[in-house]
Amino acid sequence: MGIRVTSGVSMSIRIGIAGIAGRMGRLLAEEAVAAGATLVGGIDRPEAPVPPGVTRFTDIAALAEAADVVVDFTHASAVAGHAAAIGAAGIAWVLGTTGLSADDEAAVRVTAARCAVVQAANFSPGVNLVLVLAERMAAGLPATSYDVEIVETHHRQTVDAPSGTAIAMGRAVAKGRGARLEEVMESGRHGHTGARKPGAIGFAALRAGQVVGEHTLLFASADEHITLSHRAIDRRAFAAGAIRAALWVAGRPPALYSMMDVLGMGDEA
Fold first, then answer.
1. SS3 per residue for 184-239
2. What are phi and psi of 132, to 5 degrees?
C-alpha cells in the first residue's frame, strides 16, 4: 500500500526522511502523514525501494532543500555528510542514529550552532522518563554501596554495542553520581578481570532474533536489588516519538536539543 500525503494541522511543516526504505523509515513516513505533516520524500541506498507514492531524492542536500525538518535514522558513517548538508540548508534535524564517533558528535554540534537539532539515542517517551528516574536514583543510591549493571537485548542486525539507549542510561547514572561515564564504564568483560571496581557501571549486550529493544538497569547492594526496565514491543513507538520531535523542533532557534526538551522536561523546553 502506498503512503498518501494528507493535509492536517501540521501541513505547513515539510518532513523529509533519511533512510526511508528501511523498517524505521517506512514507519516514520506513516507517522508523519498521520500527524498531518507534509511528507516531501526521502533518501536511501539506490538499490533500496522507497514506499510507493513517495518521492526519492538524489541525495541529502536535495532532500534538505525541500524540507523544513529531516528525520534521520541511518548509519553513523553518514552523519558527518548529513550534518554538513543540513547545516548548509539551515533546516531542522531530528537525529536518531547511534554509534557515533567523537568526530561525528563534533559535526553534530557544529550543525547545532546553525540549526535546531534534536538528538536522542531513543525517541520513546517511556525510555526518556526512565532516564530521568535513572539519574535521580543514582543521585540517591551511593556508588560505594550500590553497584550498577545495564543489560540490553536487540535484534541480530544491530550493529553497535552497547546500544545507544544503554549508553544513555549509563550517562544518566554517571551524571547522577557526578562522574563521567568514560571513566567508570566496564563493557564486555572476559577472562580474569579482577574484582569489580568501586563505582563501575557495567554493560552487557545481547543480540538475538528480532528483539526490538529491551533494557534493564540494576542497582544492587548487599541488602537489596532495584531494577528499572523498558521493553519496546513495536518500533512505531520510536517513530511516533521522532515525528513528535520533528513537529516540535521546526522553526526553533539553533541549539542541540534532547527528547527531554520535546517532552517539556528539559532546560530548553
1. HEEECCCCCCCCCCCCCEEEEEEECCCCCEEEEEEEECCCCEEEEEEEECCCHHHH
2. -60, -45
Retrieve residue 75's grid coordinates: 548509519
16 pairs with which residues across the strands? Answer: 41, 70
pLDDT of residue 1: 33
Which residues of the chain fall below pLDDT 70? 1-11, 266-269
Query: Cβ(77)–Cβ(83) under 8 Å?
Result: no
Three-state DSSP class for residue 36? coil
Residue 218 · residue 151 · CB < 8 Å: yes
Dihedral of CA atoms 266, 136, 187, 193 in degrees, nearest 10, equals 160
Tell which phi-psi region holds residue 132, choosing left (phi > 0), alpha (psi between -120 and 50) or beta.
alpha
**Separation CA 228–CA 175 (nearest Å):** 17
Respond yes or no on whether the N-terminal peptide bond of residue 142 is cis (omega within 30° of 0): no
- pLDDT of 3 reads 44
- DSSP code for 56: B
Domains of the chain (ranges; CATH) run 14-123+235-262 (3.40.50.720), 125-232 (3.30.360.10)
pTM: 0.79
